[in-house]
Amino acid sequence: MKRLPPLNAVRTFEVAARLASFVAAGKELGVSAAAVSQQVRHLEDYFGKKLFVRSGNRLSLTDAGLAIFPQTSRALDDIAAMTVRLLEGEMRTRLIISVPFSLAEVWLAPKLAVLLESYPQLSVDVRVEDDPVDLARHDVDIRVSYGDYHYPSLEAIPLVHDQVVPLCAPELWYRHGNSDFDLTRIHESLFIHTQWGPSYASHPTWSDWYASEVGQASPDPALGRRSGLSSLSITLAKLGCGIALGQKLIAQPDLAAGRLIVLSARSLPLGHPYCAFVPAEKRKRPNVQSFIALLATP
User: Fold this and answer.
1) Distance (Å, rounded) from C-alpha 138 to C-alpha 32?
2) Tens-place pLDDT, residues 99-155
3) What domain range includes position 191?
4) Would 79 be classed as within a structural domain?
5) Is residue 282 part of a domain?
6) Where are the transmembrane segments (predicted)?
């Protein structure tokens, strides 16, 4: 008989490790944080090793926890996939795609339209959600994510490494700009600052752009317009509300149509590429392979 650890404790450990929180794990599992902690202690007692360490409010994996997390995640993904196959009886023709909010409408939708030309009978379910997503539990076929680090048990397939450039509506530049396209002569109140959120530290800002381009002090965010989404910053720029440091990927349709103009050839790369993640048992499906190829096409 194979020697196995307590499987409920293993499942609880995987969720807590993935979410880096006993409270969040409890919400996903439908139990209290105390119950999650108890199951983790049960698993630690079984292995005789500490799996988590707390530093203030932050929960991190120990070396032992890091060693078992990827295999644990893969094993549970395999069990979930087996369950889906047995319950459905055959491979379905529905494609479930999970994407971040900023990419759904402008970037993903046109590529999806191309896919449906080849697979007109394909049923598609597009889910807009933040990382991390439980791909196995929600039966996701393709997850598009910023960065390659959210799903350690899956291979990251690089799609595109986006860049940001200064851009605004032509009408705004005609009113407030100059013939030299010199941003240092623009009032600080006209700059749109994207607030990427506490989970992101690698996204370029106006401070980074000014340091690389002109070596001068950047506009003060307190004096400008602030936005909580990259896509919203571009929309505000398109409506003439200011000058954004916008993602080319999201702004491309408006740039092509002349609704936005680029104010400098100088661009900065995002800290990470966008990647696709596909559960191993779904990689050989023709529609999945076709869509991954489309996503990677410029």
Assistant:
1) 22
2) 998 899 889 999 999 999 988 888 899 999 999 999 988 999 999 999 988 899 999
3) 163-269
4) no
5) yes
6) none
Please give the helix or strand (H or E) that residue 158 lies within, else none: strand 156-160
Amino acid at 68: I
CA-to-CA distance for 185 and 6, rounded, in angstroms? 65
Q: Which amino acid is at 173?
A: W
Amino acid identity at 230: S
Q: Rounded to the nearest 5°, which phi and psi values hold at 273?
A: -80, 165
Look-up of token digits 């990677």? 296
Orientation angle between helical segments 109-118 and 286-295, nearest 10 degrees:
140
CA-closest candidate to residue 143, choices 124, 161, 128, 163 = 128
Contact assessment for residue 275 and residue 147, using Cβ atoms and an 8 Å cutoff: yes
- The answer to whether the CB of 245 falls within 8 A of the CB of 165 is yes
**Any alpha helices (H) in 89-121, and if so which ranges?**
101-103, 109-118
| C-beta of residue 178 within 8 angstroms of C-beta of residue 185 | yes
Q: Which helix (H) or strand (E) holds 148?
A: none
